[in-house]
Amino acid sequence: MSARRYALVGTGSRASMYLDALAGAHAGDGDLVALGDTNPGRAQVHQRRVVAAGLAAPELFDPADLADVVRRLGIDRVIVTTPDRFHADYVVAALDAGADAVVEKPLTTTEDGVRRIAEAVERTGREVLVTFNYRYAPRNSALKRVIAGGEIGDVTSVHFEWVLDTAHGADYFRRWHRQKENSGGLLVHKSSHHFDLVNWWIAGTPTRVYASGGLRFYGAENAAARGLGPRPPRGTSEAGRGDAFSLDLAANATYRELYLENEGYDGYLRDRDVFDAGITIEDNLALVVDHAVARGTATMSYALNAHSPWEGYVVNVNGTRGRAELTVVERGSVPLAEGVVDPSMHPEGVGQDGTRPVSERLVVQQHFAPAREVEIPAGEGGHGGGDALLLRDVFVGPGPDPLGRTASWRDGVRSVVVGIAGNASLASGQAVRTADLDLGPGALALGGELTGS
């Protein structure tokens, strides 16, 4: 059987994970045939990296021509790593042209995007794989085993808090994510990871969402209220260097090559000030979400903070027989000299904080019994050790997996619908039923039965 032929559209930094895999560990499992980006300079950077790995240069193309590229070059799969607002466009174009799609989370950002993908899947019968790498992290898989094994009984409620620190959290307010029309806000772009974990852990489908939150730390108004004074408009400047909330693209080889040296093509600035005007996403969010589960309803309370002094998450799952508690510290504090923006993607560069060390702990306690700690297998690499396992599923295919970690487009819908409904709730001040959203054929399903359409 010949290797699959791949095209990738969207050549920012996130594309590196897939390109490195096809040029390295999975070079024999697929051929990278084409690269597309609206910024030809960024596409050329990745093309040079592929050639440097000893492989043939992939053809460069304008993303508007994706369908033609799929047909002309016989593409089997399209990997979509563009800004979120364009995911649905390229997934649908790939399916209609005769290729399957592999798409970064989130699947899409709007009801319309979900509906268009659902209709394209029904129309073509093609496959859409959503890359939820956190499912593969050993700590998250360990919690799944505890719940699926019945140790805490039927799940009744989940409390989930995720904190992003002032390096990683701030980064969403420097770049294209800061505009809700581009990313759907953190409820869609970031939290879809978290909502997918809960859906997967408890085998549930979200049915009702109430959200509260706002922009309370970043942005010009908040800066003025705290008396921060004049700010450098971008981090790559004399004034920006040394500022705790600035990102100097010139100081990072990857950012310099991908973004700073290619601004002339499209004017995209990767290093804007997190305290300037025009930011339309929230930095503090809280939700209450009802989930349909095998026996009734489970309720999740969820909180996200994007300006924490440390990064990690706490999950408490209550059941009819007991409780499971997972606590993860991905970075204990933010040293200004460290230079790591995302600790989950680059754990190798994160230093230890003696008071709050990088750690993970899963504790299970049944009613009327002492607590016990569950051993978590060691994971290496990005996203808690999940990236390498995910890439094997993407490029080789999933083997036997009782945990069901491979995510379909419907899993993508179940995660993103919480954020879409949450954004609607933020706008209206009312709870939103996911069944009232116009999502297209068979988009929400639990055990084969539709819970929304």
Automatic annotation (TrEMBL):
Source species: Kineococcus aurantiacus
**Family affiliation:** Belongs to the Gfo/Idh/MocA family.
Top-level taxon of the source organism: Bacteria
Q: Which residues form the Gfo/Idh/MocA-like oxidoreductase C-terminal domain?
A: 144-432
Its protein name is Putative dehydrogenase
Q: From the UniProt record, list the coiled-coil ranges.
A: none
Q: Name one GO molecular function term.
A: nucleotide binding
- InterPro entries registered for this protein in UniProt: Gfo/Idh/MocA-like_OxRdtase_C (IPR004104), Gfo/Idh/MocA-like_OxRdtase_N (IPR000683), Gfo/Idh/MocA_Oxidoreductases (IPR051450), NAD(P)-bd_dom_sf (IPR036291)
- Which Gene3D superfamilies does this chain map to? Dihydrodipicolinate Reductase, domain 2, NAD(P)-binding Rossmann-like Domain
Where's the Gfo/Idh/MocA-like oxidoreductase N-terminal domain? Answer: 5-131
